[in-house]
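Take a careful look at the sequence and tokenised backbone pasted below. I need to know what the token row says about the fold.
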Amino acid sequence: MPQRYPSSDCREWLNRARSNLALTKSEGTDIYLEDLCFNAQQAVEKAIKALLIKYGIEFPYTHDIAELLTLFQETGHSIPDFVKQAAGLTRFAVALRYPHMSPTIKQEEYEQAAAIAEQVIRWAEDLIFA
């Protein structure tokens, strides 16, 4: 169990991102890829929000990764291309949680989402602990 921090601490948001990443990697016969992709999106969203907190940037209640990255970039921070591709994970934020709202996810899509989430968390960790 990771050390807990106040919800206003970027380290707690990063812990939550890591937790979602761990869930993303918890493949099993009874687990839908859609649910794993949802956790990948959540991992990215929370990692970016951790950065916004670290730099004192207020953010709205949103699951839109592109919007969160834009807020970060507008304050003069650069965003690598590999992080920008995380915006594509926003589609996993809501619709995938409901059977009637999304198509079946393929293994390749899941693997890509998990890899992106892992890269974004590493990027956020580097900035937070630099």
The chain has a mean pLDDT of 95. The domain at 10-128 is CATH 1.20.120.330 (Four Helix Bundle (Hemerythrin (Met), subunit A)). The first helix runs from residue 10 to 24. The chain has five helices and no strands.
